[in-house]
Write a structure and sequence with these properties.
single chain, 380 residues, mainly alpha, globular
C-alpha cells in the first residue's frame, strides 16, 4: 500500500510539473480558447492543493508569502480593475507558493532538467512546423523572451548533471532552442554563464565546438523553413566578415521602455500606483522589469523585501559555488530575466524556478551545519 501511494504521489508530481513548467494552461488559452485554458489553470491549482494535502507538511515559504502579502495588499489600495480578477489571481498565487513549495522539495535536479528540456524542445517544433514572418519562436511559452529564460535556466541545470553525454546533449539542445528565440537576454546570459563555467573547469571550452555545430544546425533550419530574422542575418554577416547594420537589432530597447515608467514611480514611491498598472493588466504597456513593476504597483516596501530575497539566494548560491555551481548560474539567469520581464507573480514557472533555488540553498546550508558540528565534535 505504501509503495502504491508513493507511486500515485510521484505521478501526481509529474502531472503538475508538466502543467507548470510546460506552461500548458496559457498555451491552451491561446490555442484552444478561454474555457480550456481557464480549466487547466484551475486544475493546476487543484492538483497542487491535493498534493499538499496528501504530502508531509514542512516549513512554509515565509519569504515569498510575506513578499506576496505586501505586494498584493498594498497594490490593492489603488486597484481599479475587476475585483473578481484580482481576488482570483491573489488566491491562486498564495495557493501556488504554499502548496508548490512542498512540491519543490520533492523535485530533484535531474527531474527539473528533463522537464525544462522537454519544454525547450517545443521551441524547435514551433520553428519547424509553425514558421512565422517575425522569425522568433517560443514553443509553449508564447513569448520568445520567456522561452529564452526557460532555455537559459535549463542550460544552468546542465552543470548539476554528472553524465557527460547527457550534459553535452543538454548544452546543445538548450543553446539551439534558446537561439531560436533570438532573445538578446538569452545570448547575454549564455555568454556570462559560459565564462563562469571556465572557473569550474577549462574543459568547458568544448562549448566552442558545440557552438559550431549549433550554428550549422541553424543554417539548415533556415534553409528548410526560412527563419526570416534580422538578428540571425546579423550573425551570419559577422561570421562571413560582412558589414553589419545594428539599426534593426537595437529596436525595442528595454531601457527605452523602462524610462517610460520612471515619472510614475517617482510620483508614488511609497505605495505605488496600484496593482496592474505596470504589468499591462489594465490595457496599458507593461514595464518589462519585475523590480520596476513591484515598486511601481506597490511601492518601496515589497520591493525592498523582494531585493532582500534575491540578495539572499544570490549570496548563498555564490557561497556554494564549489559544491553546486549550477545554483549561481540559475540565480543569474533568474535575476537577469527579471530585469526584462514583469510577470514573476503570474508566470508560475518563474516563481517555481526561484523557489527551487531557495530550497536547494536551504538543503546545502543544513549539510554545511552538520559538517561544521562534526568538525567541532572531532576536535574533542
Amino acid at each position: 500500500m505504501a509503495s502504491y501511494n508513493l507511486y500515485n504521489m510521484k505521478l501526481l508530481k509529474y502531472i503538475i510539473l508538466l502543467l507548470i513548467i510546460l506552461n500548458l494552461p496559457s498555451k491552451a488559452l491561446v490555442t484552444m480558447g478561454e474555457s480550456i485554458g481557464s480549466l487547466l489553470s484551475y486544475i493546476t491549482i487543484l492538483l497542487l492543493t491535493l498534493y499538499y494535502f496528501f504530502s508531509k507538511k514542512t516549513t512554509p515559504n515565509w519569504s515569498l508569502i510575506i513578499i506576496a502579502l505586501t505586494y498584493f495588499i498594498i497594490g490593492s489600495f489603488q486597484y481599479h480593475g475587476p475585483s473578481k480578477v484580482f481576488i482570483f489571481e491573489t488566491i491562486k498565487y498564495f495557493i501556488f507558493i504554499i502548496c508548490g513549495y512542498e512540491l519543490v522539495k520533492k523535485v530533484s535536479n535531474v527531474e527539473l532538467f528533463y522537464f525544462f528540456l522537454i519544454g525547450s524542445i517545443t521551441i524547435g517544433f514551433d520553428a519547424l512546423f509553425n514558421p512565422t514572418r517575425f522569425g522568433r519562436y517560443a514553443g509553449f511559452y508564447l513569448n520568445p523572451n520567456v522561452a529564452g529564460f526557460m532555455c537559459i535556466y535549463g542550460y544552468s541545470l546542465v552543470y548539476s548533471i554528472k553524465n557527460t553525454t547527457i550534459k553535452l546533449s543538454g548544452q546543445f539542445i538548450f543553446t539551439l532552442m534558446g537561439l531560436l528565440t533570438f532573445s538578446r537576454t538569452f545570448i547575454v546570459i549564455w555568454v556570462v554563464l559560459n565564462l563562469i563555467s571556465l572557473k569550474i573547469s577549462v574543459k568547458n571550452l568544448r562549448i566552442l565546438g558545440i557552438v559550431f555545430l549549433i550554428f550549422s544546425t541553424l543554417i539548415v533550419i533556415d534553409e528548410i523553413v526560412g527563419l526570416n530574422n534580422p538578428r540571425f542575418e546579423q550573425l551570419k554577416s559577422i561570421v562571413n566578415n560582412e558589414k553589419v547594420s545594428t539599426e534593426e537589432v537595437n529596436q525595442d530597447s528595454r531601457a527605452e521602455t523602462w524610462a517610460l515608467f520612471y515619472d510614475d514611480i517617482l510620483a508614488a514611491p511609497i505605495f505605488g500606483n496600484g496593482y496592474g498598472t505596470f504589468s499591462g493588466k489594465l490595457g496599458s504597456l507593461g514595464a518589462h522589469n519585475t523590480y520596476l513593476m513591484i515598486i511601481g504597483e506597490a511601492g518601496i516596501i515589497p520591493l525592498t523585501l523582494f531585493i532582500g530575497y534575491i540578495g539572499y539566494i544570490l549570496y548563498w548560491s555564490i557561497s556554494f559555488f564549489k559544491r553546486a555551481p549550477n545554483l549561481i548560474m540559475q540565480t543569474i539567469a533568474l535575476v537577469m530575466f527579471l530585469l526584462a520581464n514583469h510577470n514573476f507573480f503570474i508566470f508560475y514557472f518563474v516563481s517555481f524556478a526561484a523557489m527551487w533555488i531557495q530550497y536547494q540553498i536551504y538543503e546545502h546550508k543544513k549539510i554545511q551545519e552538520i559538517n561544521e558540528k562534526q568538525l567541532e565534535y572531532d576536535k574533542f
